[in-house]
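Reading a protein record of the kind used here takes only a little practice. Each token is a code from a learned vocabulary of local backbone shapes. With that in mind, consider the following protein and its fold in token form:
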Amino acid sequence: MRCLFAAVLAAMLFAPISASAGDYAPMNCAKAKSAAEKTVCGNYALGQLEARMATLYAVATSLVAMGQRGDMQGAQRDWLQERENCGDRVACLTERYDARIRDLNGTIEGIASRGPY
């Protein structure tokens, strides 16, 4: 079962996508207001990172115990503020997304290592 979960997660995260960032970014790009949001919506690589992060966040929050969800939501709010602080700087945004993705992957791996399945 663990292998099946990993395979499904990998398929969702690494499926080839050929669209503009705004076409698939989980955020509503038509309503993007901040410089960071507009930059993510206009940059294909950042749009992919947004989609990956949003998927991992959804998976992680669905797997953690109810008591941990508040902590995860707080960490996500903190991360969103860090992302906003980057403004339109692509390198800064990329670093923030990479760090959040590593953090969420660590959460999921921690849950997977404890089982049960």
Notes: The CA atoms of residues 17 and 69 lie 30 Å apart. The chain has a mean pLDDT of 83. DSSP finds six helices and no strands in the chain. Residues 2-13+34-114 form one domain.
